[in-house]
Amino acid sequence: MYNLKLKNQKGISLISLLVIIAIIVIAVILIYSITKQPGYKLDIDNSEFIAYFSLRVSILGAQVSDNLTNTLSREYFDKLGDIVKNADSNNQWFTDADSKLFVFANSADDDAMIDYGIPAEDVDKFEITWISDGRYCAFFVMKIVGEDYYLVDYDFSADDVLGCMLTIE
Fold this sequence. Notes:
7-stranded mixed beta sheet, elongated, 7 strands
């Protein structure tokens, strides 16, 4: 009879141990999901956000102008290259040019974002923007979380996507 009680106590201990392990695993998963960032966070102090925002403003300015053109500073264009390299050192960017550079840029509307795979109810949480020099295209997908912007997807590939013309100077 003494052995029977000992087996019951071991069984209770094993169950308690399993419950404790399950609680720890759930806590770790919750902490990870709460603290995990969706991508590369644009640094406000390093003017990364300002460079990206300036690109979007330049595109908007071009879209409302009669000739669909606008400018973007060389500093902000280069900072966009820094963003993609900071996100992943293997990311590619346009080759440096000392003279003026003309690029085409645009941003996706809601329908294009849905076609890309973003759920319709989430389109206000994302921005898709691209820049093309006529040979290559840099494609940014940003996720907006509160006031923070995260680069969640980036592609640089041979493509001649057109859009508004921006002069980089």
